[in-house]
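Anyone up for a design puzzle?
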């Protein structure tokens, strides 16, 4: 364990030349954050939205190229209707106030997941944000909304199978690159696979997130609940990432 001071010293030693290009985050612990304060669960989501703003700006200033945030999973529909409705309002609230800051910071919004199931107003907010930030060529802020990795893989397999049966490709053409090209991250090209996955709130699971893309990602499980995560927490996670030896199945560091 590091003392607070040692952590502070570590924080100052972040290597700006080796910032992970793609960071993905499972933003967990909003409910527990609220319950600890005797607040309704949605208060945790509201505070979590503020954290999204803080972490987006911090990541962009550090030079991260893609920040993928797991905002709503295909399994989250099982939650009580009031909570689901609140979560569906969050993108509307977020983009209605934050798009000018995103543009100021040259951040482009992207969304992966089946947004056709979201309420009309939420879809409009998302599409407007994508349109309004389309010319930004800095960091990509990629929201996973109604996203599930098994759903993504199922769709990819169906699409590849239909290309085979239509004679567009041969089964022998199917390789890593072709499969990646059918994933919802294909728009990200070489940056599709996260270098670093962070999950907050101490849970150590992947929860149906980016199962294909995480093949060689470094995983960081941090104890803070998402509303308590901040720019310092992000830097600490990056410093730990920088201490890892990535070998991608080989023997040498990359
Ligand atoms: C998991 O915590 C969190 C979610 C299911 C929702 C995450 C959403 C946000 C942080 C806000 C997103 C903001 C925008 C702009 C879309 P949990 O509720 O499972 O927490 P618990 O495990 O403590 O119950």
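Challenge accepted. My sequence:
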């Amino acid at each position: 364990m590091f003392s607070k001071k040692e952590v502070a010293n570590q924080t100052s030693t972040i290597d700006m030349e080796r910032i992970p290009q793609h960071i993905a985050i499972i933003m967990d612990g909003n409910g527990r954050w609220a319950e600890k304060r005797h607040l309704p669960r949605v208060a945790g989501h509201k505070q979590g939205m503020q954290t999204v703003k803080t972490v987006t700006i911090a990541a962009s200033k550090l030079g991260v190229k893609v920040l993928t945030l797991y905002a709503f999973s295909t399994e989250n529909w099982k939650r009580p209707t009031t909570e689901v409705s609140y979560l569906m309002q969050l993108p509307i609230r977020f983009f209605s106030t934050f798009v000018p800051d995103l543009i100021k910071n040259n951040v482009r919004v992207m969304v992966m997941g089946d947004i056709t199931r979201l309420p009309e107003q939420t879809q409009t907010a998302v599409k407007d944000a994508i349109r309004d930030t389309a010319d930004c060529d800095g960091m990509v802020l990629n929201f996973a909304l109604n996203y599930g990795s098994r759903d993504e893989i199922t769709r990819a397999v169906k699409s590849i199978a239909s290309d085979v049966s239509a004679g567009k490709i041969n089964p022998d053409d199917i390789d890593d690159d072709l499969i990646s090209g059918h994933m919802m991250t294909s728009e990200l090209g070489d940056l599709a696979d996260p270098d670093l996955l962070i999950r907050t709130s101490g849970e150590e699971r992947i929860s149906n997130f980016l199962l294909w893309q995480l093949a060689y990602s470094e995983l960081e499980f941090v104890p803070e609940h998402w509303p308590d995560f901040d720019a310092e927490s992000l830097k600490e996670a990056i410093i730990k990432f920088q201490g890892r030896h990535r070998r991608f199945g080989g023997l040498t560091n990359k």
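A detail worth pointing out: Residues 27-32, 45, 48-49, 52, 71, 76, 87, 90-91, 94, 143, 226 surround farnesyl diphosphate (CB under 6 Å).
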